[in-house]
Write a structure and sequence with these properties.
heterodimer, A: alpha+beta, Chemotaxis protein chec, seven-stranded antiparallel beta sheet, 4 helices, 7 strands, 36% helix, B: alpha/beta, Rossmann fold, five-stranded parallel beta sheet, 5 helices, globular
């Protein structure tokens, strides 16, 4: 399955980065009651100790990933729960839900895509010793946001 | 005022806790809260529990929320219990599908406690 041809054209003509950044900001403001700021691309990358992944299929086909270090993932879970996470599974669950909401919020903001695009349930990789290679070979977006001064990398990769 | 018994269906345990907290923040006095990780678990839970409201995700493994809403029509003890979908799926088509299947409300994630209050309170009527 590949991305809808019209959307491929739109992704080349429109700048979807502000849409993705707004989707991220809204999720953190509403669900964690905190603000994230967009960081410069020169910001040091976090150790990718927690990586949440949500797949898109249909009009948009690809993956959205959110990557951060362990300490940040625990702080995200704590902000969501209002208390420290009980286990690493709960931390992974929290980051997966953030990824799910960011992906859904982004998709819902792109007119004409939402009803023709499905999301997978989230998956979360823990541990930094891996390489992630998506078969998505088309449009790619990446932003780094700072959550309580810690970087989080959000990347969208779409099939052409 | 009776305490409200709720069934919360979501494959994320974190999200189930957030939904429960949002109900409390909405001023709803909760009694027993039953949790289920997917639609099939929720149907099983309803065999042993009577609830006043069901809040249900759509995108779940094993049995998704839309199928759960369709199948709940066969559960005698759940007849008339209002179901509110809480999901990232925000399209009109999904809303129509959920309401056609029998859901009474639809909340898009991310959501605020005020949105939960706005959608859930009217469905509880005289119980709150």
């Amino acid at each position: 399955m590949s991305t809808d041809a019209v959307l491929t054209k739109r992704s080349q003509e429109e700048d979807w980065l502000p849409v993705l950044e707004l989707a991220i900001q809204e999720v953190f403001e509403i669900m964690l009651r905190c603000q994230v700021t967009t960081a410069a691309q020169s910001e040091p990358r976090p150790k990718g100790e927690f990586t949440a992944i949500v797949g898109l299929a249909g009009a948009l086909c690809g993956v959205l990933t959110i990557c951060c270090d362990t300490k940040t993932a625990h702080r995200i879970a704590q902000a969501m729960l209002g208390d420290a996470a009980e286990s690493e599974d709960q931390v992974a669950d929290a980051l997966g839900e953030i990824c799910n909401m960011v992906t859904g919020n982004f998709k819902n903001k792109l007119a004409g895509t939402d009803e023709r695009c499905m999301l997978s349930v989230p998956s979360v990789i823990t541990g930094a010793e891996y390489k992630f290679r998506s078969l998505a070979d088309g449009y790619s977006l990446e932003t780094i946001v700072l959550f309580e001064e810690s970087p989080i990398v959000v990347r969208l990769q779409l099939h052409s | 005022m009776d305490k409200i018994r709720a069934l919360i269906v979501d494959d994320s345990s974190v999200m189930r806790k957030i939904v429960e907290r949002s109900l409390r923040q909405a001023g709803i006095e909760l009694g027993k809260v039953v949790e289920a990780g997917n639609g099939a678990e929720a149907l099983l839970a309803l065999q042993n529990n009577v609830v006043d409201i069901i809040l249900c995700d759509i995108n779940m493994p094993v049995m998704d929320g839309l199928e759960f809403v369709r199948q709940i029509a066969t559960v005698e003890s759940a007849k008339g219990v209002p179901i509110v979908m809480i999901t990232t799926e925000g399209s009109e088509a999904h809303v129509v599908q959920a309401l056609s299947a029998g859901a009474r409300g639809y909340i898009r994630k991310p959501f605020t406690p005020d949105q939960v209050k706005e959608h859930v309170l009217p469905l509880l009527g005289a119980k709150v």
